[in-house]
Amino acid sequence: MLSLTSNSNATLHSTGLKIGGISIHRGPSRSFKLKIETNLDADGNCAALDAQREREASGLWNDPVVLGQRIPREEVQLDQLVGRGAFGEVYSGRFRGDKVAVKKLLAETRETDGRVDGFLAEVRISATLRHPNIVRFIGVAWTSAADLCVVQEFMEGGDLRSLLDRYEVESRAIGFDREKTRVAMQICSALAYMHSLSPPVIHSNLKSSNVLLNGALEAKVANFGTSPKRTLKTKTESKSRTLWMAPEVVRGEMHGTDADMFSFGVVLSELDMHSAPYTQARQQIRDSSWRPLQDADILQKVTKGSLRVVFSESGPMALAELGRACVSVNPLKRPTASEALHRLRTIFADELA
């Protein structure tokens, strides 16, 4: 005896069963007819595949800069997952015998054209950047949107935020020393280079977890994500807000390279104190329900100028002064990247020799 059970994907009729595009019909003589419905068009082409081909043939998929950086997907080998974010994953891998980092969009993210285009926009900008303190871009590979990936140099030292977390666990002395000041100079050198381009490149997503380290603890800026812009002024989506963002960015206003300098000031505070931004405020200030401050509460106070990151009294005071200048609420009071780099080099030579 044949038993037919209906579910969300099947419709049971008095004369037969339909599952998706497959129909089984019972005839008058108790015979069954099988009918398979597909989404093929009159020419026998799959509409879904055609839609993807159309998408891939338009916009950034067909950009000459992106195409010029394309490498064979079959030569990119994925090994181990080393990181995961809101929109993508990073794997260690191999490309032509070299160890590399491979960035991929999450499956659910690949369904959004905006995210794919943003991913390719990062490729377009990263391919043009050449600096010793920016993670080296190797290429982009795909056979379809499903396996789109960016290949870049592998940074075996991990990210700066993880290093500072270890410093906290190990109770390392706070304050700026030569090692941490050198890291600050390397980050600032990358920003000075990006901001000197015409038009300038605005990172818009600088934070300690987006600063990667090699085995010698040399710092390189990475993970531009979908945010970098080659423009004098830009806007950042509100849903992308982080504790490193400048007040004008949080408010959704147009901003320029000075927004990166605010983020750099927050990173300087992390290098100094080792803790994540606004950790002390989160512990000391409570909301009306006596709960620790949430990120939204912190950002609201930052935009009003009533809350700032803190600096220690250890190490050169000139470094703390530079950090405070960078996190000025007024963008016009922040130093440029080239000015900050000059100050860092002077402090390094005069006070940390």
UniProtKB/TrEMBL annotation:
UniProt-listed Pfam families: Pkinase
Domain Protein kinase: 76-348
Organism from which the protein derives: Phytophthora fragariaefolia
Keywords: ATP-binding, Nucleotide-binding
InterPro entries: Kinase-like_dom_sf (IPR011009), Prot_kinase_dom (IPR000719), Protein_kinase_ATP_BS (IPR017441), Ser/Thr_Kinases-Pseudokinases (IPR051681)
Gene3D superfamilies (alphabetical): Phosphorylase Kinase, domain 1, Transferase(Phosphotransferase) domain 1
Record GO terms (molecular function): ATP binding; protein serine/threonine kinase activity
Residues annotated for ATP binding in this entry: 104
PROSITE patterns (UniProt xref): PROTEIN_KINASE_ATP, PROTEIN_KINASE_DOM
Protein name: Unnamed protein product
